[in-house]
Specification:
The complex is a heterodimer of chains A (487) and B (358).
Chain A (H helix, E strand, L loop, with lengths): L4 H12 L6 H9 L2 H6 L3 H4 L5 H4 L8 H4 L14 H10 L2 H6 L8 H7 L16 H5 L16 H12 L2 H5 L9 H7 L1 H7 L8 H5 L19 H9 L2 H5 L7 H7 L1 H8 L8 H5 L12 H6 L3 H9 L1 H9 L3 H6 L29 H32 L5 H20 L5 H68 L1
Chain B lengths: L1 H15 L1 H10 L1 E3 L8 H21 L9 H10 L4 H29 L7 H23 L4 H15 L5 H9 L6 H33 L16 E3 H26 L22 H12 L3 E2 L2 E2 H17 L1 H4 L1 H4 L5 H23 L1
Antiparallel strand pairs in B: 1-2, 3-4
Helix pairs in contact in B: 3-5, 3-10, 4-5, 5-6, 5-10, 6-7, 6-9, 7-8, 11-15
The chains are: A mainly alpha (487), B mainly alpha (358).
Chain lengths: 487, 358
Amino acid sequence: MKQTPLFLFLVALAASAGKAADGCLECHAALGDTPSKLFLRDIHHANGIPCSGCHGGDATSSDMEQAMSTKAGFVGRPVGDSVSVVCARCHSSGEEMKHLHSSIPVGQFELLQQSVHGKRGTDGRSRIAQCTTCHGAHGIAAVNDPRSPVHPRNLVTTCSRCHSDATYMRSYNPALPVDQREKYMTSVHGKRNAAGDSRAAECASCHGSHDILPVKDVRSAVYPTNIPRTCAKCHSDAALMKAYGIPTDQYERYAKSVHGVALLERNDLGAPACNSCHGNHGATPPGVASISKVCGTCHALNSELFSASPHKKAFDALRVPECESCHGNHGIMAASAALIGTEEGTTCVRCHKDGSAAYVAAGTMRRMLDSLESEETRAKSLVEDAEQKGMEVSEAKFRLREIRQARLESRTTVHAFDQAKLTGVAAKGIAVAGWVSAEGERAIDDYYFRRVGLGVSTLIITILAVTLYLYIRRIEKADRRQKTTTT
Amino acid sequence: MKGIGQKLYHWLDERVHLDQLVEFMDKKSVPMHRGSIWYYFGGVSLFLFIVQVVTGILLLLYYKGSEQLAFESIQFLMSKVSFGWLVRSVHSWSANLFVLSAMIHMFSVFFERAYRFPRELTWLTGMFMFFLALGFGFSGYLLPWNELALFATKVGTEIVGVVPGIGKPLMILLRGGPEVSGATLSRFFGFHVAVLPGIFVVLLTIHLLLVQRQGMSYPLRKEEERESLKTIPFFPNFLLRDLLLWLVVLNVLAILAVFFPWELGRKADAFAPAPAGIRPEWYFLFMFQTLKVFPAKVWAIDGDVLGVGLFALAGILWTLVPFWDRKSRHGEKGRLLTWTGIGVVLYILVLTVIGWLA
């Protein structure tokens, strides 16, 4: 093996620093190959782990044949799954890590195997990702080292090496988008990250690192019901958010909101999580003018009616947030007629002054909604009462749905802020409610009529029976008298 | 008015010789003793059958025997037709009271040994009518085409299917296919309103003619003192007493129909999961409960097969009792048979109560 005096000096220096001499590195460095160059700044090298720690062989032998003999345990360049197995020899061993004075958790290999990246690759021979896929080889640096490919500032680039490669991604999941990086760069998180803020959320902040699971897996941190909690990890952290001047009560307010209750308590996956309004990779607060469009992705009709209403123009002119002004945002509650009207606490009186045409219209619309609601309550209670009495009111019960439908429709129509339109819808519901109530009343009347009828018929039958009984007694008495006379 | 009546009587008498019938009726008497009360249950059963026929015909005016319309037609009848609810409720209640009354009648005849010579045919026709009454109940239960009825019929017809050999073909014949479907409904409707009533009326006519021809049976213990036994004329005394009881039953029926109207439930859906609490009508409950608690295998025989087989055997033995109970033919009351009868009644009662509470 050809050795230069400089190299020998370096090795001697390393040995004098208390580290064991690495025969492999001595030769390979002399050859000037890239791995050995990179390894010199590898965290493993810094911690005294020689090349043979991963490649095997006898690092102490100066004879190349001996050093790289299979008898000495030389494995060469690990390929496929054996790469991660080599890493796991130390990283999954609590004893080894303790020996190296490392506080790195020891379960990464197992988590990686169970993750989406631990599935078999397209070649069918090895898993999709190995440790080196993200961490690199030979030049491995600590996660908090800015040179590391998994350092927060580099991670997006590392992940996008595969995830932005349409050809590569298509071979695994053709439906999976590949524009996450582009979207991320437009997000508040992405912009801060690009500006060098390593506390800003990157891929691993939401998806996890070794334990990444598909979005559809209920255990995934980005499964719909887990998203609010995932976002809250940072956004409810007062110390972290202080620097950004962002409030930290969004999660608490959301969890109590109509959306939060639906998603978190009823597990209704159709209910919106944080990303439904803010976006996910491109997360950013919706702008004032686009709120109705964002809400309109689910509440389409309300959004359409609002956009065509006189309020749209006024809200835009005043730069007032649309839906949010009346309904709120994170703590949004189930809408009720109480939002509209002229009473204290209603949203209309915040802008419309007493006596104005809009003020009067708000009062009229509220009365209309209230009448429909009270008519519905009355119809429902009459039908329930009749049903409890054992009366057949299935048709009336079925038509209760029409009233409910009219009530929901009227609440939607409110967003047009058109009194005539609302009156039309509400009147339809009130008319059906009138029919249902009449049916309920008729059934209840019928119930009492049946009892009276039963009383009358029972009385008639009883009188008949008593009369018959008396008649039988009379003829039997006569028979007995006749028999006595005969004898 | 009296003149017209007499003229009409003479007109009929000239043609059909009513005098002979009147003379027969005049001489006909009914013995009065401690067990005379049981004589009335035959009459009560007849009355309830008449109620069934009348209300059944009224229901027929509105009922549509198809999978798509059966449930809706009864819903319409109960909510829109004047007194439709009453007719249906009375029909359902009287069906149950009819089976109950027929059961009491059957057991009273059994314990009094009234089936003995020369009344074997009366017993046989009565037993066949009782089986037909169960058939009426089973077929009628499905007709509203509601959830409970569908699943109860599934279970009921499955039990028929376990009979070795003929079970499967019989089940398919009953269902009109491998599953309970609209075809089963049409079939059951046909059985309920045409086949069963046709046979029943023939048997009933024979049964009544035999009762009239042979008269009421005297209890065994009174056989030797028959001459000294008190009697009442069948006409009009016994008939009027019968009528009086019919009025009482009518009152009970009206009260039940108004206070406990027969529910319609939810429309049958073959794809829906079986609802909780499926059970047959109360008169099948003891058999249903027995099969439920029967072990899956008894020796090498399937539990269900053995259960159904034992019930069939018991039914045959019970039906043929006049032919193998020799003691009653000689005027003696066999204690073993009496205790067997008591055991049967207790078994039915206990298993029915357990099934009801389960």
